[in-house]
Design brief:
The protein is of the alpha/beta class and about 375 residues long. The protein has 14 helices and six strands. The chain folds into two domains: about 240 residues, Rossmann fold (3-Layer(aba) Sandwich); about 110 residues, no CATH class. The two termini are about 15 Å apart.
Length: about 375
């Protein structure tokens, strides 16, 4: 079965991008594939990368307000990058005390938080798949032992070890073995060292610059896409890149008699919608999952190739018809994610779902695919047909 993942704006090739892709592919193969009755290695994941065709800044964003040069190199090392990916988790962690305090209140949530932090440091698909397998076992242990006795005297410094020892004693095969245990220990440490104090002036200035750059590139990529998306006869480079992998996946789906699933994050949803309604409406998609997307917002502004101010005739009482070639459409948003929107009020035949990433408003937009529980819920929804 093929899955096509279409990324959104503000993605550029590099170590962090590739690590995120490998981690995501690993969890899709180990958690989503089995739920659909597939062996992990049989799942084919296509990741069309269109970021290279995004916005280019002639002066390298020189217009952005810049903190002093003393802070320019902040967070450039590999571990700092990993800590940065879980910085939003700190808000949840501190709000509920440390990892042990959280575990005493909600063991499953604490495990999900721990694995989200460990997942941020995964450097290969193999490592991510091992973490996904371990996560499945950890959740099974938590379901069987929602409040294990050892939590009473556990501490953050030994939480991963105590969890590993208890799970092994319960005959949970291969839980936390070898490098996985080290990854979990790093995950615990990362949760408490991921970001500077948000109340300090330095942190505020750095956060402002990062947010400013993110929004700038978001808008820039969207403008470039809208200006250069092309026509049916001559698609632009972004459309062409995504369209090629969608057609490839469609051919695989037909040849193997397997469903085609498309996952579109953020602006990837707008690209896929344009393709399914204008560039190639003949591509049959069994399920489209838009995550943190603005598809409905862009239709409200009538920015798609097929958008018309007269269709539907009487909004908001009427809605746009779902693409004919799309059998099922799930739209996921987080209310903390200021770049995500509902879709049901605008497009007919769509199911909206809320998912709490646990991240702050800044981290929520990219946080969906950092939480192991997101893959579990995706697998469950897909399995429901």
């Amino acid at each position: 079965m093929p899955i096509v993942f279409v990324h959104g704006v503000n993605n550029r090739d590099g170590e962090a991008y590739r690590e995120n892709e490998q981690a995501r592919d690993g969890f899709l193969k180990e958690i989503v594939a089995p739920a659909l009755g597939m062996k992990p290695n049989k799942l084919q994941v296509l990741n069309p990368y269109w970021g290279k065709y995004g916005v280019q800044f002639a002066w390298g964003m020189a217009v952005l307000p810049n903190p002093s040069a003393e802070f320019e190199a902040f967070g450039k090392d590999a571990e700092a990058e990993a800590r940065g990916r879980v910085a939003g988790l700190l808000a949840e962690s501190h709000a509920n005390g440390n990892i042990v305090d959280m575990a005493r209140k909600d063991f499953r949530t604490a495990i999900d938080l721990l694995y989200a932090s460990a997942m941020a440091g995964a450097e290969t698909e193999e490592e991510a798949r091992d973490l996904a397998k371990s996560y499945e076992l950890a959740i099974a242990y938590a379901e069987a032992n929602p409040q294990p006795a050892w939590l009473a005297d556990a501490e953050p410094s030994n939480f991963a070890d105590r969890l590993n020892h208890a799970a092994r004693a319960s005959d949970v095969e291969s839980f936390g073995a070898g490098g996985i245990l080290d990854s979990l220990k790093e995950g615990v440490s990362r949760l408490f060292n991921a970001a500077p104090d948000a109340t300090t002036e330095v942190a505020g200035r750095l956060l402002r610059k990062k947010l400013n750059a993110t929004i700038t590139r978001f808008a820039g990529d969207a403008f470039v896409y809208l200006d250069n998306r092309g026509t049916v006869d001559k698609p632009g480079p972004i459309v062409g890149t995504v369209l090629a992998d969608l057609r490839k996946a469609s051919a695989i789906s037909k040849a193997e008699g397997e469903p085609l699933v498309v996952i579109a994050h953020s602006f990837g949803g707008e690209i896929v919608y344009d393709i399914l309604t204008y560039f190639d409406p003949g591509i049959a998609v069994d399920c489209l999952i838009t995550v943190g997307s603005q598809v409905g917002l862009f239709e409200e502004m009538k920015l798609y190739k097929v958008s018309s101010p007269t269709l539907p005739p009487n909004p908001p009482g009427e809605r746009v018809v779902r693409p004919a070639s799309l059998k099922r459409w799930l739209n996921v948003f987080d209310t903390n994610d200021v770049l995500s929107y509902q879709l049901e009020p605008v497009v007919d035949g769509v199911s909206d779902f809320h998912y709490d990433t646990g991240y702050s408003s800044f981290g929520a937009h990219g946080g969906y695919f950092m939480r192991p529980s997101f893959y579990k819920r995706m697998a469950k929804r897909l399995a429901q047909g």
